[in-house]
């Protein structure tokens, strides 16, 4: 018996937000196969015992007429059960044509105002016939990788992940704000910073590191996902933009401060370890992907106070 799950998100963070629901399905059927359009998900989940395999597809999902090509690809995997975490008519029809007998999908043609967490929880409770479903899970990192990371990290210091990168400019707090925050934090002793940016955002980490006289920062931008995950999983705090980093650290039990500029609340309130910082005059429910809140509306002191409320420096 083989169970497949389709996650329809390109961003790594959105995929990891759904990890708990993949785990719930795996607890019923055994390790699952995840079909995704996210390039980095396989590396991120390589230590997860509940994930049998990650299948990356980069074709056949954008156009309606790709249904037949997609069905041919899905048929290769011989899925007995297939869970589609999106109201996708293309994937539903492709699954049907592929001959998958048991197909479960979100209600079709209901994409508007889709709340990622609420929709996924409702879907899992209904399809698995369970009364409750946690909104977060444990992110798996192998013990061997944890030990290697611990040897790289100076555990006598407070190690803080600075999530300076993000999926787009409208979600970034900005280099100058992070520089001023690090300088303020450096008034305390024994802190080390890991600057988390994507490989295409190396200039962001360079700008931040070059501005810090204390030289207690290192960039993670040139590391692969599989290399940096063990490191951030052993840090004491995440503070930064809405990026994949906080989806990992929060599910590793690490306090994670997310600076909200145009991030819907669903991305930042599914874990008890997530803590938002946002403009005081704006209601959290009013923030959407199109909010484009000015970074200057969130002050360095505001973020600094939130840090002090979560860890002792």
UniProtKB/TrEMBL annotation:
Q: Which InterPro entries match?
A: Glyco_trans_9, LPS_LOS_Heptosyltrfase
* Organism, scientific name: marine metagenome
Does the keyword section mention Cell membrane?
A: no
Alphabetically sorted, this entry's keywords are: Glycosyltransferase, Transferase
Q: Name one Pfam family in it.
A: Glyco_transf_9
Name of the protein described by the UniProt record: Heptosyltransferase
- Biological processes per GO annotation: lipopolysaccharide core region biosynthetic process
Glycosyltransferase in keyword set:
yes
Q: Which GO terms describe its molecular function?
A: ADP-heptose-lipopolysaccharide heptosyltransferase activity
Which Gene Ontology cellular-component terms appear in the entry?
cytosol
């Amino acid at each position: 018996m083989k169970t497949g799950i389709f996650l329809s998100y390109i961003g790594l963070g959105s995929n990891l937000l759904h990890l708990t629901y993949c785990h719930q399905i795996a607890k019923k059927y055994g390790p699952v196969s995840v079909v995704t359009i996210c390039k980095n998900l396989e590396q991120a989940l390589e230590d997860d015992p509940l994930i049998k395999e990650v299948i990356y597809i980069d074709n056949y999902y954008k156009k309606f007429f790709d249904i037949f090509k997609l069905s041919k690809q899905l048929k290769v995997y011989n899925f007995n059960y297939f869970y589609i975490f999106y109201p996708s008519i293309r994937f539903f029809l492709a699954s049907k044509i592929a001959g998958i007998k048991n197909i479960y999908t979100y209600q079709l043609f209901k994409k508007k105002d889709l709340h990622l967490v609420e929709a996924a929880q409702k879907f899992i409770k209904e399809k698995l016939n369970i009364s409750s479903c946690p909104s977060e899970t444990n992110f798996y990192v192998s013990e061997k990788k944890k030990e290697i990371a611990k040897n790289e990290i100076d555990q006598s210091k407070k190690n803080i992940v600075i999530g300076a990168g993000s999926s787009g400019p409208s979600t970034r707090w900005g280099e100058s704000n992070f520089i001023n925050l690090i300088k303020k934090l450096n008034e305390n002793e024994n802190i080390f910073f890991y600057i988390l940016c994507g490989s295409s955002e190396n200039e962001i980490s360079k700008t931040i590191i070059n501005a810090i006289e204390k030289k207690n920062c290192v960039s993670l931008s040139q590391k692969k996902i599989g290399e940096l995950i063990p490191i951030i999983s052993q840090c004491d705090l995440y503070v930064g933009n809405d990026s994949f980093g906080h989806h990992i650290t929060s599910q590793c039990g690490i306090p994670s401060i997310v600076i909200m500029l145009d991030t819907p609340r669903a991305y930042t309130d599914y874990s008890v370890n997530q803590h938002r910082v946002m403009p005081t005059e704006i209601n959290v429910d009013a923030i959407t992907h199109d909010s484009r809140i000015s970074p200057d509306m969130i002050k360095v002191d505001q973020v600094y106070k939130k840090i002090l409320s979560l860890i002792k420096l």
